Amino acid sequence: MQAFAYARAAGVTEALAAARNADTAFLAGGTELLNWMRLGIAAPTRILDITRLAGFDAIETLPDGGLRFGALARLNDVALAPAVVERAPMLSQAILSAASPQIRNLATIGGNLLQKTRCGYFRAEEKLPCNKKWPGTGCAARDGLNDRHAIFGWSDTCVATQPSDPAVALAALDASVITARGAGGRRIPVTEFYRLPDADLAGDTVLEQGELITTIEIPGAAPRSTYIKVRERESYEFATASVAIALDLDAGRRIARARIALGSVALRPWRLVAAEEALAGLQPDSSAIAAAVETGFAEARPLAHNAYKITLGRNLVLRALRLASEMAP
Ligand SMILES: Cc1cc2nc3c(=O)[nH]c(=O)nc-3n(C[C@H](O)[C@H](O)[C@H](O)COP(=O)(O)OP(=O)(O)OC[C@H]3O[C@@H](n4cnc5c(N)ncnc54)[C@H](O)[C@@H]3O)c2cc1C
Ligand code: SF4
Does residue 63 sit within a domain? Predict the structure, then answer.
């Protein structure tokens, strides 16, 4: 690991000024950043510790039933907050399915959203063809081992997936990331936060150098919501695929609105917009549900080893729809 200078930011203005330098990285829980430095994925020469920024760990309720978290709120604190369990149970479930209790006690919700792909070629300690890590070297996963890779939104330059569990729930909840930066802060919907792979793979998200996530906001409550994660072992494992569903039923128990996001199928949480539209007006136990869900997979493009993710994703959505429809409003 290369040597670096360490400093602690006393305030947001100071943090933004210091992080304008491209060699600077913010340090939150450090559970991702320090691994990247060890694996040669990142090599900042200055680390700016933002963990003491006042108020950045707050967890608040909003008058419309929604929620607001500071970017430095610890994952376990968010997952176990009674307001989160009540208003957005799927976010609580998504967080508790991530990593280990020890990591969740340290890791922050802002840092979690910024984690990088778990693609084995990208994380390998030896130099393998990987456009994301070594621009212009090709993508070893495109025609190599790609069972864990994308079925949506990939390009020949990169077929990786984004591994964050909380991001999938936040995408289905229509949450936004709120930032501070020199040019003025902004509000970015989580559905538009991640960049799909194109010729330039340098940035995983739309954040600019030195842009600081301050808060994350969820509009309105989603008490009928659930998160299901499939993985190769029951704990301490990233998702093979996952689904987050928030369901609104009308007085006749028909689906008024379904919001569905799949995880580990693309380089961003993937909203099944066509399925959401096709489900509106149906009873959750209607025989037309399966066909409506199927429309969400029309644009799926499996690679050589991951067509199973279409079947898995479809079954996950059907199961989550049933579970969410049985929850109390
Ligand atoms: C063994 C292991 C298993 C894991 N399993 C899972 C899993 O199953 N599911 C899952 O979702 N995650 C999993 N994770 C990922 C884990 O959740 C992340 O490591 C963690 O959430 C990152 O948070 P952090 O606060 O430690 O981020 P850091 O490591 O401090 O930062 C990560 C990145 O975000 C930047 N950053 C941090 N905060 C801000 C901010 N406020 N504004 C701008 N930039 C910022 C940093 O500069 C850095 O680039 C796992 C991690 C490990 C090590
Ligand atoms: S999928 Fe992306 S991260 Fe993985 S080898 Fe290809 S370019 Fe690299």
Answer: no
263 Cβ below 6 A of ligand 1: no
Ligand 1 atom 6, closest CA:
99
Angstrom CA distances, 20 to 16, 34, 45, 81, 292, stand at 6, 20, 13, 34, 47
pTM over 0.70: yes
CATH number at residue 32: 3.30.43.10
Ligand nearest to the CA of 94: 1
Number of domains into which the chain is organized: 2
Domain of 239, in residue numbers: 225-325
Q: What is the pLDDT of residues 35-48, one digit of tens each?
A: 999 988 999 999 99
Q: Measured from the CB, is residue 194 less than 6 Å from ligand 1?
A: no
Ligand 1 atom 40: the closest Cα is on which residue?
Answer: 213
Q: pLDDT of 76-135, one tens digit each? A: 999 999 999 999 999 999 999 999 999 999 999 999 999 999 999 999 989 999 999 999
Pocket of ligand 2 (CB under 6 A): 117, 119, 121-122, 130-132, 139-141, 158-160
